[in-house]
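REQUEST ID: PR-0412
SUBMITTED BY: lab tech R.K.
PRIORITY: routine
TASK: structure prediction, single protein chain
INPUT:
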Amino acid sequence: MSKNPELSLDEAIGFLIQRAHERLNTEAYDYGYDLQVDSALDAFLGSMQYGQLRDQARRVLFPIMAEAAWELCKRGVLRPGVSKWGGQGLDTGHGYTITAAGRDWLSNGATDDYLLMQPGSLAASLREHASLFGLGYEQRVREALICRDVQAWLSCCAMAGAAAEAILISLAIQILGDETKVFSIYNSKSGRHELQKAVRRDWKEHDATQLNTMMKIVAYWRDDAAHGRFIDVTQATAEEALRQLLHLSLWVGREWARLTRAEWTT
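STATUS: complete
OUTPUT:
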């Protein structure tokens, strides 16, 4: 086999998450670490059966696996260093320990939450709804992801909330069938609240409750983050805003045909 193995950053993050999950309730260590990049890379290559090209593959894939580990550090799942005092470290470094928050997240994390750790997968999951929710949604999603990547947590929250509003506006246009009327309602006093009432007017109670709950949570980031007073916005706050936006996008996208049924708009 002459072709080098391929590994995207998202795939590397997913592989390390799986490996970290396997280490939660074991005493297996990579020297004094919970995870060590070289060992993780060897495990990945072993599973992919690139035996005779191992050295070449390691050179190609090591930077990607190392960046994935650092991405998980930025998300608070890992931290550099040995797991216990006196643990054996390596001169080369590249060793990490699962944080307390990381252990909790790995034990309780849902599939959608894993997407938040994978920049490409999260972007793809959100942007695949752009054709449904419009260019305004796509623009705000893109800005939210850029803000997260540069650790601008306040701006990330504001853009996540703005993207949620774009979903509401798209729903309203489809249901009411009159874009001018939709923006007239939206720009009025308590416009978003009134627009939600117009959208859910003929919905079943559980759908109306679902929309109210999701919009209330995401609207919090939009309103508080966009106004002038100081608020304490952390990485965890921004991750929560993106998680809520993802759940809202997935739910409305999945139920779009049912929520916008023609007989409900007559």
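NOTES: Strands lie at 35-36, 78-80, 95-98.
REVIEWED BY: pending
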